[in-house]
Amino acid sequence: MVASVAELAAEQARLGGMQLLGEGGLLQQLTRHLLQEALETEMDEHLAGTAEPGRSSRKGGNARNGYRSKTVLTEAGPVTVEVPRDRAGTFEPKVLPRHSRRTEGLDNLVVSLTAKGLTSGEIVAHLAEVYGMATSKETVSTITDRVLEGMADWRSRPLDAVYPVLFVDAVNIKVRDGQVANRPVYVVLGVTADGYRDILGLWTSTGGEGAKYWQSVLTEIKNRGVKDCLILVCDGLSGLPDAVAQVWPATVVQTCIVHLLRNSFRYTSKRDWAAVARDLKPVYTAPNEQAARDRFAEFAAAWEANYPAVVRLWERAWPEMVPFLGFDTEIRKIICTTNAIESLNSRYRRAASACGHFPNEQAALKRLYLATLALDPTGRGRKRWLGALNAFDIAFDGRLSAGRA
After folding, report:
1. Which of 212, 192, 213 is CA-nearest to residue 203?
2. Ramachandran angles phi, psi of 22, nearest 5°
């Protein structure tokens, strides 16, 4: 093996340079050599396994019967090999199955590039430029369709019994269904009892997001093993609090403070953003609910004349905002710091915007699932929330440790 590689490299250098990639490159030649050697070895083993005792090939036993040329696409570029044949026609190579036109390595490369956010057209151009390989968007789509089975398994995998926090958020994608329109894809991200991030799944909705829809989503999550959730953080999703009360009656539904602030800015002139944010901060950092009400009354007195919609927004959100005020600082930090789900949504938005729009929701889900794999194959991040776990167990009367038992 080493000698063969050295011979290829020496011959390449002698003929005019050491081109590594592309047509005629060293990797392409090495791949062709390795595939050819593997095919020859497989044929030798096949003939040894099918030989009849006491009979040679001259007496009618199975034997080699020439070759047939086959060009396959590999991660090193297109390679033409000579596939050996046997007289009995029973040889089925494993390294290059009979009807395959690509190696598994190339398929993995295409899936990886898709997961990194490249479109089908960009992948085709990349393979042509770097590897001298002629492919098509249809081939890329066929390759990435391999992940659909894995996506189905991922979306139905067993989950932990208890989660301190679940975040529910939406990413808008464009789907061409008669005409191009925005469709929400909902992502549920959990903080595990061990302090890891866990992406529970992705869901689409075409019939609205009422209590019935959310009850079906939460029931699915419950059926996958989630017996309890201490806090569920969301952004004013209609019907979700009612569904939570049905599925996990003891769960606290909390409005996302960051989203509440962002929604406030929608009704505010940009020149006043800093002042509005400054005057709202004492509300959500107050030591208790009464102090928060006092600070909010001051905010309303100062800003209602200019921005009554902001005051109404906070009044409507108040029932789902105030639970936040009763928690320890460590718990507040988790609820208010949405970096985990914001970075995830940012990755999803980049993956979706690179495609412009999708032919259907399945294609959109496939794209976002691949983005999830690129982020972390397990859907879990490093420990970031360990400091808050004891605070959760105290605040919720041991439900966290009981659920882990």
Report:
1. 213
2. 85, 180
Rounded to 5°, the CA angle 389-293-168 comes to 40
Q: Which of 233, 241, 250, 267 is nearest to 337 (CA)?
A: 233
The identity of residue 161, as a single letter, is A
pLDDT in tens, 253-295: 888 888 888 899 999 999 999 999 999 999 999 999 999 999 9
Q: Which long-range contacts (CB under 8 A, 24 or more apart) does 236-240 make?
A: 236/263, 236/317, 236/320, 237/168, 237/170, 237/209, 238/208, 238/209, 238/210, 239/209, 239/210, 239/211, 239/212, 239/213, 239/214, 240/168, 240/209, 240/211, 240/214
**Beta strands 162-177; 228-234: pairing state:** parallel
Every domain of the chain and the residues it spans: 1-98, 102-144, 160-404
Tell me the average pLDDT across 226-235.
Answer: 91
| Predicted TM-score (pTM) of this structure | 0.70
For residue 92, the 8-state DSSP code is -
* Region for residue 379 given its phi and psi (left: phi exceeds 0; alpha: psi -120 to 50; beta: otherwise): left
pLDDT at 206 over 90: no
